[in-house]
Structure formats: structure tokens, C-alpha cells
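Title: Prediction job returns without error message
Component: structure pipeline
Severity: low
Priority: P3
Assignee: unassigned

Description:
Job completed but the reporter wants confirmation the result is attached to the right record. Sequence as submitted:
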Amino acid sequence: MKSLPYALALLAACALAPAAAQTTLKPGLWEVQQKFHGNPELDEAMKQMREQMASMPPEQRKQMEAMMASQGVQVAPGGKGMRMCMTREMVERNDIAGPQGDCKTTQQQRSGNSMKVVFTCTNPPSRGESQITMKGNEAYTSRTTITSTERGKTETTHMESSGQWLSADCGSVKPPVPPAVRK
């Protein structure tokens, strides 16, 4: 079974990969919803993560939320998605994915409101491809295929995501901190 930190890292990396190369998105607070297919262990890990978060004592939950917040991610109300803050600078530099999952866009192609993004991540070690469909500058949908290897076993996970811009004000959700700055 994948560990809770691995599931959190993969979730964060995957959530942000579709937005990585997009310069037309509005900066501000975004909510991202995801559905995983094809990886029963990850499905189980995500289910357990939601259950663990819901049943944690208040002090422990605050510690977990603080750890996630230090990476620029907040669990959305109801625990079925994440909220993240995208600054104008992040959108303009196209570096949104890198800080969260140590990911790098290796290829991108855009045609109209669709974009194809190929990426690699070092933490967790994985590679993938996303097909993103923009719905204006306040929403998108994406389909992503991620291939990772853990304990010598290669796994492929398919993910459907949707992102919705909520507000220009991120409130208490802080932008992600680049890996070089985290200590």
C-alpha cells in the first residue's frame, strides 16, 4: 500500500500538472477536483487519506493541514478536492507544476482551447501526459495518464480533473513554495 505522504505528493503533482503551461488562466484561488482510474492501490490510499483526515483529532488534523499548506495546498470543503493559490507571476512564468511535485514540463502543444502537456516528476518519480480543454480563463477539464514505478513495479494511473477559479483573493491559501526554498 502506498503511504499517505506518497498519495499526497502524487495528488499535488497531478493536480497542478494540467495548469503548468497555461498562461490564460486567471490568477487567484482555484479548486481542483480529481478522479483516479486504473490504480486500485492509489484509489485505496486516497480513500484512506480522506477517512484519516476526517477522523483525526483536531490537533493532528491541524498539523496535517499545516504540512499541506506549507506546500501550497488546502483540502477543499468536503474533502473531495484541493484549493490552491496561483499568483499572476506563476501564471506568467508557466512554472505552476514544478514547485508542488518537483515536476517539469518537457513538451507542450496548443491548438485553440486544447493543450497537450508532457511532464516528468522526480518526487514522486513519474512521467505523464495531459490533454487539457480550457473553458475560458476560469475553468478547465483534463485527462491525464501517469506512469510511475514503485518498489520495482510500474503502474499506470488515469486521472480526470476539473479546475474552477473561485476568487482573485486567495484568502488564507498561500502560493506553493519552490523546492529550493523549502527546508
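Comment from assignee: result matches the submitted record. Residues 1-23, 94-100 have pLDDT under 50 and may be disordered.
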